């Protein structure tokens, strides 16, 4: 199909499974944020987090502020270069705010450790992380949350090259509504 479905070897999480998990995560986060003195700032990491962020905040049951950061590290390849740089910063002042960093996937941990340090230096009161996927087999950097920040993870991801639901290969496949394994012949 034109969307790229023919390049997928196996679907790991369907649209419906993702939707159910996102709803459960949003419910948990809403409970944890209830009673906060000011609206929490949900910061999506562009571009990969756009779909998860949109589905997540629709189900958060407290007022929220939505913002984006952009971090460059992968380029068009499949490996992190280990030195992420922030190329687009949040537009909101996060000083004294509860921040929830929203990611599609945590791989080496380089992107998040860079962003957590950055938000802490801007005076965030807490920094939580909410990621759809976590690939612990690939972790190189362990990040620490800030203040009362919590870690929310949708699914533990096996060590395959996955695309869809925001995740890309060479900027493609982000619009697939599910997460699947890319056929190796596509990137070899
Ligand atoms: C991917 C993914 C995470 C990051 C995780 O983004 O969306 O942001 O890599 O990898 P790490 O834990 O090794 O840092 P990418 O840099 O490919 O940009 P994109 O979101 O625009 O695809
Ligand atoms: Mn990303
Ligand atoms: Mg990418």
Report on this structure.
Belongs to the purine/pyrimidine phosphoribosyltransferase family. Pfam families: Pribosyltran. Pathway: Purine metabolism; IMP biosynthesis via salvage pathway; IMP from hypoxanthine: step 1/1. The structure is a single chain. The strands form two sheets. This protein has a six-stranded mixed sheet, sandwiched between helices. Strands 1-9-8 form a three-stranded antiparallel sheet. The protein has helices at residues 15-33, 50-58, 110-121, 184-187, and strands at 8-13, 41-46, 65-72, 85-88, 98-106, 126-134, 151-156, 162-163, 179-182. The chain has one domain (5-187): Rossmann fold, CATH 3.40.50. The model has no long low-confidence stretch (mean pLDDT 95). The protein has 188 residues and is an alpha/beta fold. Helix 1 crosses helix 2 (50-58). The protein contains four helices and nine strands. Helix 3 links the parallel strand 5 (98-106) and strand 6 (126-134). The structure holds 1-O-pyrophosphono-5-O-phosphono-alpha-D-ribofuranose, manganese (II) ion (MN) and magnesium ion. The site of 1-O-pyrophosphono-5-O-phosphono-alpha-D-ribofuranose has 16 residues, from strand 5 and helix 3.
């Amino acid at each position: 199909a034109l969307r790229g479905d023919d390049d997928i070897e196996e679907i790991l999480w369907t649209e419906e499974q993702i939707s159910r998990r996102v709803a459960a995560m949003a419910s948990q986060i809403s409970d944890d944020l209830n009673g906060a003195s000011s609206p929490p700032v949900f910061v999506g990491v562009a571009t990969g987090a756009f779909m998860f962020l949109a589905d997540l905040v629709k189900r958060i049951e407290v007022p929220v502020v939505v913002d984006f950061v952009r971090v460059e590290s992968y380029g068009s390849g499949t490996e992190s270069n280990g030195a992420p740089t922030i190329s687009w910063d949040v537009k909101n002042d996060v000083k004294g705010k509860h921040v929830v960093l929203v990611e599609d996937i945590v791989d080496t941990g380089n992107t998040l450790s860079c962003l957590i340090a950055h938000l802490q230096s801007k005076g965030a009161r807490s920094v939580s992380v909410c990621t759809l996927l976590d690939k612990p087999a690939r972790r190189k950097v362990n990040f620490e949350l800030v203040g009362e920040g919590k870690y929310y993870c949708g699914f533990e991801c096996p060590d395959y090259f996955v695309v869809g639901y925001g995740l890309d290969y060479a900027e493609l496949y982000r619009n697939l509504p599910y997460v699947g394994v890319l056929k190796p012949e596509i990137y070899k």
